[in-house]
Structures are given as structure tokens and as C-alpha cells.
Amino acid sequence: MRIRLALLSAALASGVAGVAIAAESMPKADPAKAQQTVSQVCAACHGPTGQSPLPENPHLAGQIAEYTTKQLMNFKAADGKQAERVNPIMAGMVANLTPEDMRNLGAYFAEQTPNKGFARNTATVELGQQIYRGGIASQGIPACSGCHGAAGAGMPAQYPRLAGQHPEYIEAQMKAWRSGARANDPGKMMRAIADKMSDAQIKAVADYISGLR
Ligand code: HEC
Ligand code: HEC
After folding, report:
1. Domain check: are 85 and 149 in the same one?
2. N or C: which terminus of the chain carries fewer CB neighbours within 10 A?
3. Does residue 30 line the site of ligand 1, with CB under 6 A?
């Protein structure tokens, strides 16, 4: 009995030690290691520092690192299952990336200077601001600022930066949450909100957000 107990506690002790070693051997995210992939692959669409020239390609500069890493993982189909975030272009981009590459890329873009945009539509900027800061209580739409921050800078680790993003991209994502084409939001947080919004409300808040800085 004594011997068996001793063996058991030895096994437990080594088990615990094993966990500690595994945690230590997980390398810290290293943005420098992402540089080559960014220059050779991502820059073509997202720009060399994550400020993308075309509105259909999102800005990545200044994004919350964990959010970027999560999206890269979500774009990748695993174990024969469909990817959590379905996009044919990005599926090809992540196919050969390891989880470590994805963490390094997240760290790289988080370090870059975010884009500074402008709201373009003076007729809707007030409505956009109202939705962003206060929501629309009568429709059960919450304030975007509650999760994405007063200035749209996002909040680690779950809530992405929105400030300065291309309005066309924001609008497209809101419509994708609403139709269910994008369904990788934890707890259906974004689908529940987009469901309640009209096209005009989405457009107004997207334009307002693009001018946040
Ligand atoms: C051929 C163009 C193209 C290239 C090259 C490309 N991307 Fe993308 N990327 C896109 C498009 C388009 C989207 C938007 C997808 C959507 O609408 O859902 C996107 C979306 C993303 C997103 C999601 C951003 C967000 O705000 O949710 C991340 C992260 C991303 N790309 C990272 C990368 C990285 C890292 C690389 C290089 C390994 C890369 N992309 C290469 C076109 C590209
Ligand atoms: C309860 C918290 C919460 C609120 C309130 C909220 N969001 Fe989000 N939002 C999230 C989360 C979480 C994500 C990231 C989902 C994921 O992991 O893909 C997100 C993602 C997004 C994205 C995608 C960003 C990208 O780069 O692809 C957009 C656009 C967005 N939210 C717009 C809004 C707008 C507009 C409002 C207000 C009408 C709003 N959100 C309110 C939690 C929230």
C-alpha cells in the first residue's frame, strides 16, 4: 500500500512537472519572425505594415494580437471540418501557417501604427455616433463602445479594434454576421446585434467608425 502511494505521488509530481515544462517551452510570440511572411505574402493585399490600400482588404495595423491570431486559426479548416470563418482567399493564405506563425503574425500587426481614416458622410455621422456610443434602446441594439472601446481601439483579448477600418469592410462584415455567413463570434455576440440592424443603420455606423481615432 505504501509503495503504491509513493509511486502514485511520484507519478503526480512528474505529471505536474511535465505541465510546467510544456508551458515554458511555448515560445513567446516573436514579431520579427513574421516579417518574411508579411513581406512575401500578406503585404500584397494588406500592405507592408498592415495598412491596406483597397477597401475589401481590411487594415490589420494596430489590431489586438489575440484577435488576429484567432482569425487566422478560424480561416483554417481542420480535421476535415469546414473552417469557422469561411473565406476562400484567406483559406489559401493560412493553409501552411503553424499556430506559432499565427501568434507571431498577431504580434507583428499589433505593433504597427493604425490607419487614420475619416467619416465621409456628414448626413449620417450623427446617427452613426448615436449607435456607436449609445446603441438604440428601442431596438435592443447595444452601444458598440461597450465592447470595442470609446475610441474603437478594441479591448484585449476578444474585442477587435475597429477605429480607422475601411467602412466597406465593416459594412460587409455586419451583413455577413446578419446573414450568418460569418459565424465565428463567441456567444453569437455580433450575430445577435447585426440581426437587429437595418442597412441604413449599418452604413451609418460603419462610416462613423472609419473616422474614429
Ligand atoms: C490576395 C489578397 C490577400 C492576401 C495575400 C492576404 N489576405 Fe488577409 N484578407 C484578405 C481579404 C479579402 C480579407 C477579408 C475576408 C472577409 O471578407 O472575411 C482578409 C482578412 C484577413 C484577416 C481578418 C481581419 C479582421 O479584421 O478580421 C486577417 C487577420 C488576415 N487577412 C491576415 C492575413 C495574413 C497574416 C496574410 C499573409 C499570410 C494575409 N492576410 C494575406 C485578402 C488577403
Ligand atoms: C457584447 C460585445 C460586443 C458589442 C456590444 C459589439 N461587438 Fe462587435 N465584436 C464583438 C466580438 C467579440 C467580435 C469578434 C468576433 C470574432 O472573434 O470573430 C466583434 C467583431 C466585430 C466586427 C468584425 C471586425 C473585423 O475586423 O472583422 C465588426 C465590424 C463589429 N464587431 C462591429 C460592431 C458594431 C458596429 C457594434 C455596435 C452596433 C458592435 N460591434 C458591438 C463584440 C461586440
Report:
1. no
2. N
3. no
Tell me, in angstroms, the distance from the centre of ligand 1 to residue 123's CA: 31
Confidence of residue 22 (pLDDT cuts 50, 70, 90): low
For 78, 90, 169, 172, 185, the CA distances from 57, given in Å and listed in that order, are: 24, 10, 7, 11, 20
In a domain, 161, yes or no: yes
Domain with 93 in it: what CATH number? 1.10.760.10
CA distance 78 to 80: 6
Question: How many angstroms is it from 119 CA to the middle of ligand 1?
Answer: 23
pTM of the model: 0.91
Domain residues for the domain of 45 are 31-110
Are 92 and 146 within one domain? no
Residues 158, 112: Cα–Cα separation, whole Å: 19
Q: Is 174 in the pocket of ligand 2 (CB under 6 A)?
A: yes
pLDDT in tens, 151-192: 999 999 999 999 999 999 999 999 999 999 999 999 999 999
Q: Probe ligand 1: pick from 90, 98, 209, max atoms within 8 Å of CB? A: 90
CB 71 less than 6 A from any atom of ligand 1: yes
- The count of structural domains within the chain is 2
Q: Is residue 121 in contact with ligand 1, taking CB distance under 6 Å?
A: no
Last residue of a domain, one of 48, 79, 110: 110
Which triple of cell numbers denotes residue 108? Answer: 507583428
Closest CA to 118 of 152, 151, 164, 150: 164
